[in-house]
Protein 1
Amino acid sequence: MTSMTTPPGVTHAPARRLTATRRAALGLALGATVLTSACGLPDHVVGLHDAPTETVSGAPFGEATAQEITSATLTEADRLLASDASEKQLTAIMTGPALRLAQVAPRFRTGDPGALQAPSAPTILAISTGRAWPRTILATTQSDGVQRVHVLTSASPTAPFKLWLTADLLAGASIPALPPLGDGTTLVGKDHGLVASPTQVFTLYGQLLNSPTTKASSAVVSARDAFASAIKTSSAQQTKALGKLGTFKRTNAPIAGSILAFRLADGSALAFAQLTRTDTIKPTSKAKRLDLPKDLATLAKRKSVTEALRLTTIETLIAIIPVEKKATVIGAAEQLVGLNAK
Amino acid sequence: MTPHVALLKRLAGALLVLIGLVPLAFGTYAAARLGTSGSATFVVKGVGTSPVLLTPDVLNRTDLPVEIALTPRSGASALVVIGTPSDTQAALGTAGHTRVTGVDVRAGQATTADTAGRTVEPLGELTLWRKTEQVTAPATVTITQATAPESVLIAPAGAGLASMALTWANPTWFYQALVLAGSGGLLMTVGWLLVRPAPKAKELAR
């Protein structure tokens, strides 16, 4: 037995205490090592993590930004349209159909078209979805009881937003619900899923307004709106007034690159387009000449024509194109842009 | 205690001394480098007239704000634009630029990669940016993580930038470095205790 073999007066107590201390220290050291290793991984200690991924769906910017862009653009457009702006100034702020109308010779402009922006700030209806270009903003303003719809577009990352089109809604018309602003709105492409593509709709609508009419009705678009009625009435009146002294021909055709459509919440589309209307009046053999009305005589700088009078008008249209039923025109405006008298 | 056990203890002690030396040295160095504010600053070398792009891979890897310190050369300026990564990259297009790819902790420098290309388009008038800032004197632009992920594009004008640095600050880092150094010191102490010869048993008292 140990106690029997240990010499009297000899003790191991200090050695045992030291061993216990060493064991405790060893355990503590190992614990510290484990602890240090566990949380000592540099990335973990520093708080490094993967960078969050960018969300590329939905609108590329918010309503406030869209409103700021639209307001600034419309204000500048108003300023330019009210002044004798240069071509360079106009192209800096407008493009497409809006620029086409802004470039109309002053002599063809009648009356005050009213400000685009005033008096209220624009309301943003839609922002195109995704991160690609072109990007578009759909906005509306109210001025003198007329609701105007504006389309702005940015062609590339380094191109500013420009006013692409402005059109007035017809009295009593309204725009159906669009997707939530944050979700963004898709533009209608080739895979349109509508009763007909926007190009087909506007082409057929133009044909319905032709005179003499080549198409009495269409299965995809209605021509019973106020604008169509006015056009058809004026065609009939002009034809009747000329009688056997002259011929009247009216054609309407979409302008290439001037059609754009936003997808609505229910899958239908809100489409915009510009059409060229050409009115041609020719005297028949029974009339040596045709006297022009005073306003046209002023524009043509002659009182009569012996060969033909050709009037070119730009029609800016807004249409709702549903998935199944007939498309309807809810907005329209026209502007005489050219006159040729011989 | 047998001689074998004593030898093993000494070997273990020596090992602990060696293991403890590393965290002690690194922790002490890191604490001294970070300071009590816990600021880690990395200099972006080679800045000048070329645009500098900072992407989320650098800006948004922690939950801390990033301070970008810019010093334009005399009479020069720099336009700082902040936007979404895709918009920033699209605006930059194929323009030549310097991209900050990361940081080298030991060197205290940011690592960069240069891309050759055309001159960058004017950025100030674009409607892509969440924020723009024109810098004409030494200034600091702070990028928070609230709107992450974001990219920053710095377009120098004139003589360009004299210097640029990125700083992340977290006081906790200083104390973590101290704990690391302390852990290393503890390991070394224990190791030394094990290496030290055990006191011999006292002789029989008189």
Note: Chain A touches chain B at residues 7-12, 14-15, 18, 21-22, 25-26, 28-29, 32-33, 35-36, 40, 45-54, 56, 60-61, 65, 69, 131, 133, 154, 157-158, 160-161 (CB under 8 Å).
Protein 2
Amino acid sequence: MKNPVNLAVALDDVRLLRRIARREREAFSQFYDRYAGVLYSTGLRVLNDPEEASDILQAVFAQIWDEAPAYEPVLGKPFNWALTLTRHKAIERLRALQRRYAFFAEITGEMEGDPSAGRDKVSSESQVTLVRNALDSLPYEQRQAIELAFLGGMRAEEMGETLGQPPGTLKARIRRGMLKLRESLRPLL
Amino acid sequence: MSDERREAQASLYVLGALPPEETREFEAALRADPQLKTLVAELRSAADAMVTGFPQASPPPALKSRVMGAATARGTVPAAPAKMAGTDTAPPSGWMVWLPYALAACFAALCVVLISLGRNLREQAVSLREQLNSRAVEADELKSRIDQLQSQADETGSNYERRVDDLRSDVARRTAELQRQTAAFTNQLAREQSELKHRLGTSEADTARLKREKETLEEALRGVSLANNDRLNNAHLRLMRPTAAGSAQTLGASVWLVADQRGLLILESLPTLPASQSYQLWLFDPSAPEPVNGGAFAPESTGKVRHLFTCPSNVRTIERFAVTVEPKGGVPRPTGKPVLTSD
């Protein structure tokens, strides 16, 4: 069963995007306040550079403003769409800078500033705890492979060269890790 | 296709790590399989939820105004296209009135030619497109086959790695077991060797003792002058061994010649007694009511004894000999415990 809270948030996000499509600045401002923190944090985790992360965030919101009229809910929730845009732009920038994603084993610390200010405004404390526990419960090798793919944009072959492991092994790790993550986060799905 | 492979593909797909050529094949399967679609949706939500668990940071405060400013600049609706110039000018006159009809006729003729050419070209294009589609399908099938083989190779490689790991573990386990068995065998061997040495030592001691006993008996026999074999046959010869009350080092033999009614006691390593005490020999004859006195004696300073004795009564049979410690000079009947006996 879908999480009713998340469903309500997703519906509200869809309404916001429709208003953005009608060029309502107030709706755009609300959408920014809601997700700028988590999208900026994602860009920062990929690029490890505040200025680059700021540029990515600005480009993402410009694209949201431009493409909101073409947004179709059937393609996914607004947050997932915005996150996909952020990831792709950050990974492209990472490649343009000829850098590799730096994997951090630590997930519980805060990067800078007020932690609550960076978080998106719809994830409750309990949801964040659930996600962190789920990530903590993953074996180091599985989480590393998942992050290198998701935030580093690496394929199994590229990962294999970096980590010195056969691609088949890395694919198996990703599969096991993702299935475990899905089970741990089932209350949110 | 195995569920595990589909799950691996779905995981890589939502993470954006599935190769493009494999993505096409997977998306085709995704369109046809509702369960796979559900799996992908759940995995995608799980992957996206991950970012909320990572350390968070707030964007620079000034960034929002830049974003909003950029939106305002982009949000201007483009102006509607301007009307075509010259649409409200006066109509032409003279020969120019026929000019449009002439141009229209030429245009119609041209259109007929072009339509004919176009039909031919379209037919060729359709044919080429069909060929292209056919080749594309073949190419997709080949790529799909290559992907499948690649995945099989990856899975096989992974299986081999697991088997190699298993074999290594097995070898390590068996090596440890062999080492343990070798150590146990070595210990057992050492124990048996030690026991054998101990037995050898005991045997050597027994051999030495028996040799000494044999020498003592030979000496005892040499000390007796035997006139003939009968006399020897009537001799009672016994080995003397220490009792618990005597010294363990003492050894000897005693002989009694019935025909001569005399005997000889030979001992070695007999401890010296205080001046107030003497050793005394006793003969046990079953027909006598009490032990028969064989006389008192004292060892030499070397512990040797050579005691020739006779008895106060006639002794025909010897059951055993015994030596006791008695007051100096001896007593009529034994009072001390035996220190040597021929039992």
Note: The radius of gyration of chain B is 64 Å.
